[in-house]
């Protein structure tokens, strides 16, 4: 696994999970804004410098890989940040180990199985994968199976015997053309209902690429997660007792 940490090793850890496709450096712009935290980055299995470069279209296995990266750098519960496909992986981490995740930060997260529909280019990529860059093929493999896996994840969220989820922080753009902003409604109704704190920030006129376009705002949300409170700068916040 290609992984690295930036910042004080004894500071609260923040684990960043990139989308599909992607790599650890998708979060580069946030680093200068969080000097007092231990920031942990890695290339997910199948992407970047992590080997082997083979498809691993499985949320549970991806979450296990993320968990191992975190354990390599810190034994403390972490703020886990997930962008796009990294969002359900982060959520899966929390479902697998409540003690390892201090809070979730979900950015343009694709978590609602009802909103996951294959598009024409998914079928085209599958048919022409021999002539398409490998990272895009492996990303397409993840998209092909994600709806079914999100349905499984939803059942786990609704399991009445499960422990409460950690605080959940959400940021999503109204003009997200890749992951519908309606995913926010799903988070509010399902995982949010099983968490003692839910903070939602819907960004007007913003697209899918929050880590690049809004690094300062993302840093503020992470800092709010460290403190366990909703940021006063958010357009909308909701907390449940």
Brief rundown of the structure:
The chain is of the alpha/beta class and 241 residues long. The chain has helices at 59-73, 86-96, 120-127, 134-157, 183-189, 210-213, 215-227; strands spanning 3-6, 13-17, 38-42, 78-83, 101-107, 168-173, 198-203. Helix 1 (59-73) packs across helix 2.
What is the CATH first-level class name? Answer: Alpha Beta
Work out the oligomeric state of the chains in this entry: single chain
Number of strands: 7
Low-pLDDT segments: 234-241
Number of domains: 1
The chain-level mean pLDDT equals: 90
Total number of helical segments?
A: 7
Key words describing this protein structure:
single chain, 241 residues, alpha/beta, Rossmann fold, seven-stranded mixed β-sheet, 7 helices, 7 strands, 34% helix, 16% strand, globular
Descriptive overview:
The chain is built from seven helices and seven strands; from the N terminus they run E-E-E-H-E-H-E-H-H-E-H-E-H-H. The protein has a seven-stranded mixed beta sheet with strand order 1-3-2-4-5-6-7, sandwiched between helices. It has 241 residues and is an alpha/beta fold.
What order do the helices and strands come in, and which of them pair?
Layout: E1 3-6, E2 13-17, E3 38-42, H1 59-73, E4 78-83, H2 86-96, E5 101-107, H3 120-127, H4 134-157, E6 168-173, H5 183-189, E7 198-203, H6 210-213, H7 215-227
Parallel strand pairs: 2-3, 2-4, 4-5, 5-6, 6-7
Antiparallel strand pairs: 1-3
């Amino acid at each position: 696994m290609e992984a690295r940490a930036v910042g004080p090793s004894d500071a609260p850890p923040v684990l960043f999970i990139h989308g599909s496709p992607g790599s650890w450096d998708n979060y580069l712009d946030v680093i200068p804004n969080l000097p007092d935290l231990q920031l942990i980055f890695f290339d997910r299995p199948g992407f970047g410098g992590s080997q082997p470069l083979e498809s691993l279209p499985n949320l549970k296995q991806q979450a296990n890989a993320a968990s191992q990266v975190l354990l390599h750098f810190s034994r403390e519960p972490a703020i886990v940040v997930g962008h796009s496909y990294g969002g359900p992986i982060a959520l899966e981490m929390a479902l697998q180990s409540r003690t390892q995740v201090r809070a979730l930060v979900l950015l343009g997260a694709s978590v609602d199985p009802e909103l996951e529909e294959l598009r024409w280019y998914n079928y085209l990529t599958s048919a022409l994968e021999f002539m398409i860059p490998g990272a895009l093929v492996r990303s397409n493999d993840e998209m092909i199976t994600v709806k079914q896996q999100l349905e499984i994840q939803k059942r786990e969220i609704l399991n009445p015997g499960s422990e409460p989820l950690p605080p959940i922080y959400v940021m999503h753009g109204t003009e997200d053309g890749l992951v519908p902003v309606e995913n926010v409604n799903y988070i509010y109704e399902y995982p949010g209902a099983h968490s003692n704190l839910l903070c939602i920030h819907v960004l007007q006129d913003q697209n899918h690429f929050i880590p690049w376009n809004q690094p300062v705002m993302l840093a503020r949300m992470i800092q709010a997660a460290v403190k366990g409170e909703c940021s006063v700068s958010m357009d909308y916040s909701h907390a449940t007792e």
